[in-house]
Each structure stands twice: as structure tokens, then as C-alpha cells.
């Protein structure tokens, strides 16, 4: 039987399912089986929950001391910390998974069969994003438990912000995939993801510090110049790196701006798709062989 | 007319100035077992990877079932089963899970039955719940073979398929390949061992330094590779001018004298020990030992790919 002709006889959707969807579904199942039976994702959730516990304990301590604490959303900082931690973990995990499978020859073995660079990376993106959804539900459960224990209010806005963070999280995963497609090896991939994360955080911190720094009244003011540079770099990285999408989505959602949060989540998803296509092209170019 | 299963046209692969495969014209007909031979580094695996679309050729074209590979590589690859050099991965999975994953990947109908059947056929059924990392090398090789056959491919590409197998396993795999071939599966075996393919292959192609130096049937190749027999003569003492006297004999093709030891290359087809003995005695020599040595096909192949082919190609 001529399979090529057979595929042409199919409907376009069925052919797409056969050539891309079904292999991707099989790879997603394997990805979830491998990652969700590992210890690392649960450790990250535990660290995020511990961080939330520490922050809430601190808040309660201040209430005890001052008798009053005015705070908009007691879970806001914890939510930022948790979502950023999970996003960075998944970006790193995706980069390591692809770089390691490439080194071991797993990608090559898959490509002996009906798997293309795009369907392979698509499966990785979907697998890690689903993993994020599962871990986010676990973390939300932890927050709920902390809310019950501390008596602090966990609002629907917080939970919705967490749910919508799946778009920016997918963007983080896509960045990890792009890094692995470009650098090939496990260790450089880890350093690259860590470097990008720390770089993004560093630029944000520098910008905040420079905004607060008093500017001496010189003719050519170096603080103004540095402030302008930090602002320019941070404006670019806010769009080029996925952590900016996480920040925007959480900020607008916690302000109660649902359309804005939906827009930020959608922007994160678009970023994920674009970076995925770039990663597939990079993987093709650098070669799937180790 | 039936299209060849695999056909390459002027296939070339270069890496930074090094030519791994040069102007390869390969044809594999439907239903044949093709042995792709050559020493390590000859360009066999590179060719295999280009046929699979893993490596992009520098020049030339590849046709599978008459269609250019680049037309629809994913659909074409559904018809191909591969045992390559990277088969010992995903070894955290059990044999059953491993095969189930590949069955899902290819959309194999009734996967449980088919997995069970192949595991039984390859003697791995009792180990199906064992993780692949706990398998011996031979068992992993059989598992890779089971994986490559799950989706009932029309073309089987095997890179060193019996490496790691014990003699019993080698025979088992050989029988399996012959059985698959009888069912119409075209088989392409890449190997550096002539002995591995000479009992199964209908045709053989020999690669050397990226070139296909010979493509023929096994009997024709056997005739081509057959080398002249050699007589190793041990003398009681060195004999002056013996070399020249031996060379004068019509059955002698070459002589190498080294003190008491003389190596005489003779024409094939008859026992020339008598005439050599007479000639040595006539020259005043005393023979204390004589051994006839006819190179095996394997030795002839190795010699040819190492040295004679170099001369042939130059």
C-alpha cells in the first residue's frame, strides 16, 4: 500500500492528526509520565508553598505587633514568587530535557519515525505546560490550606491570576526550548536559562534602584543616563523574555483588570508559539544529531 | 515497472572539507535484502541517516518508493522500521511501556496484542515488566528490533543489527530477517562484517572512504574477492637465487624470501606443493615445513578494503 497516497486520500485534518497530532500526543503522555513521577516538580511546589507560609507568617507577626496591617491581597507576593519560581523551573526543565535527549540520541531515534523537529518541540511545550497546570493546581491547594490555617483571605482574583498565568508559563517553557535548540548541551543550557532569568531580574532591580536614587545636579547627569538605559533595556526585555509576560499578567489581574489579564495571557501564548517555531527552525539548523 | 524502494542519485555529504559520502548511486529493489558493507568510517551510517532525512545531503537526491524524500518525509517514514545506533534510551521504561510508546507514536492498531506477539517472538515476553536499563545488550538489541517491527514496515533499515548478540541470538535474528523478507519486507543491513550479511543478503554494496566501490550479488562478489592461495615454505637454511628460480615457474605469481622463510603466491585451482618442493630441491634447498593458506572471504574483504581498494580507487 502506498502510504503517501493513503495520506492524500485522508481529509486534511485526519492527515494532520496522523502526521503531527498522534505522535505529539504519544510524546506528551510519555513526557507527563516521566516528569510527574519525578521528585523535582513537587520540591519546587513545596519551596513555593514554604515561601508563601513564610510571607504570611511575617504578615501575621506584624498584625500581632501593630494590631493592624493594611494589605490589599495577602497572597499577592506569594503568588508572584510561586508563579515565577514555577515558570523558571519549567523553562530550565524544558531546556534540560531537550538538551539531554539530544545528547543521548533520543531525538534522533524519534525522528527515525513520524516525528519532526516541530512536533517534537510542540510535544515538549504541551507536556511542560500541562505540567505547569498540574503544579499550579497543587500550589493553589497549598495557598487554600494556608488561607484556612491563617484566616487570611484568598480571593478569587488570586486564583484567576494563577489560572491565567498558564499563558506566560508556556512562554517560559518555549524560551527553554529555544535555548536547548541553540546551545545543544545540558550544562550550557542550564547556565543560559539561569543567565537569562538573573539578567531579567537584574535589569528590573537596577531600574527600580535607579528610579529611587537621588540625581546629583551635574551638567551631564550620570544617574539620568543610567536610569534611561535601564528603562530602555527593561522595556525591551519585558517583551523579549517571558518573565515580563508573567509580571504583566499578574499585575493587571491582581488590579482586577480581567480583560487586561486575558490580553497578557494571550500575548504570552502568542510569544510561546512564535518562539516554538523559532526553536524548531533552530533545531533543524543545528541538527538533531548529538 | 516497480520503482526501487530506495534510490539515490549522486548523493554526497561533506563535513568541513571531509567527504563522508561521494556521488553515491544506490538502488535497493523491492523484496531484496541488501547488505551495505564497509569498514568503520566508510560512510554507511551517514548514508543511512541521509536516507532517513536526519542528515541533509550536501548534494544529490534520495527517492523512496519513487518519490523524492523531501516530498512527504513523515508519511514515508511510517513505512520504514529502523534499528540504529541510538536504541538504548528511554531505558527508565519497562519493555512493555517502551513498545507501547512507539506503538502510540505510529498509531499501531491493537497494540497490546502486537507487542505481546513480538516480545514472544524475540524471547522477551517474560521480561516485559522489566525496565530496559536492566536488560543485557543483546536483549536491548532485540527490544530495538521489536520496536522497529511493531508498525509492520515495508522497509527495514538495520545498522549493525547483531552487535551485542550471542551466537544463538545472531542465528535467531538471521532467521527472523529471512522470514520477514519472505513476507515481502525489503531489508537494508549496514554492517562492517561480511560474515553478518553473506548468509542473508541477496546483493551487497561495499563502501570505502565514502565511495560505493562495488555493488553485486554475493556469488559475484565472492568471485571478485577471491584471492590467490599462498604457500609458506620453511627451509633448513637460506638458499641463494631461490627467489629467481621459483619465479620462473608458470604457477608462481609472486615470491617473498626472507632468510629461511619463503612466501610463494600461486595460481588458484590446484595443489602446487609438489612442483614448489621440486624447485626448492633442484636449487639445493631442504624444506622443513610447508603450509598452504587460502584467505577466507572475510580476510579477503578486509585486505581489499584496507589496501587493495585504495589502489583500485586511485
From TrEMBL, chain A:
It is found in: Membrane. The chain crosses the membrane at residues 32-55, 75-99, 106-126, 132-152, 159-183, 189-210, 222-241, 261-283. Residues 78-200 form the ABC-2 type transporter transmembrane domain. It comes from Candidatus Segetimicrobium genomatis. Pfam families: ABC2_membrane_3. It comes from the Bacteria. InterPro entries: ABC2_TM. GO terms for cellular component: membrane. Keywords: Membrane, Transmembrane, Transmembrane helix. This is ABC transporter permease. One of its GO terms (molecular function) is ABC-type transporter activity. Its main location: membrane. It is a multi-pass membrane protein.
